[in-house]
Amino acid sequence: GLYREERERAAAMLYSNGPVQDDNPHMVQLGTEASEGQMRWNCRGTIISRTTIVTGCQCLLSQGGKTTAVRLGMSEKASIVEVEEVIYHPEYTNSTKQYDVALVRLKSPIDTAAAGKFPACLWINQTHTPFKMIQTVINETADDYTYVTTKYNSDCTWSAGNAINQSQLCVAMIPQNTIVSSGDPLFWSGDRQGGGQQVDYLVGLMSYSAQKDRSIHVHSRMSWFASWIKTII
């Protein structure tokens, strides 16, 4: 199948040690031009095609500059690709954090073999969500990961402090002080095609932590946005 060799190579690292440092084959950093002329690499995204990165609106809009570059990895030495345009979901609102999804279109396709990076699959099942998933998190020295479990949106409304709609996904994360940034990916890995190969599915993008319970995180549900994404890429 597509990217089979890359998947096999990445799986040997990713699911033996977790996506530590630059082992995650789908994650990139997004560069924003700061007013002082320096590049800020505060936002992260997930490759979903050789020319498209998906991330959160919140992070990009909070940087105060134009997103102009994508670094293909977490290392400062990773290769850089220029950005063609950023497309924010037209219904995104900062007050509710709903529709918190943005697409970053690249000027040139990613050389997957050279970069060691390749697209993740989108989870498109709108009626069923995996119960246990992998959440990429941040610590002081490197990227790490933890497991999260799915909750009913109705159970999270009180904790979140506002209504959660069908485009959002509520999960529980332990420990409560886990740091997750807007746009960070939530993955499920499994063999849905029956070919004996682990495939990474992007299920959600981190949007915000609940006000009343920091162990509750609300994500943008990728299955809800699959049709919109398809019209663009």
TrEMBL record:
It comes from the Eukaryota. Residues 15-233 form the Peptidase S1 domain. Keywords: Hydrolase, Protease. The keyword Hydrolase applies. SUPFAM superfamilies: Trypsin-like serine proteases (SSF50494). Pfam families: Trypsin. One of its GO terms (molecular function) is serine-type endopeptidase activity. InterPro entries: CLIP_Serine_Protease (IPR051333), Peptidase_S1_PA (IPR009003), Peptidase_S1_PA_chymotrypsin (IPR043504), Trypsin_dom (IPR001254). SMART domains: Tryp_SPc. PROSITE patterns: TRYPSIN_DOM. One of its GO terms (biological process) is proteolysis. Belongs to the peptidase S1 family. CLIP subfamily. This is Putative trypsin-like serine protease. The lineage of its organism: Eukaryota, Metazoa, Ecdysozoa, Arthropoda, Hexapoda.
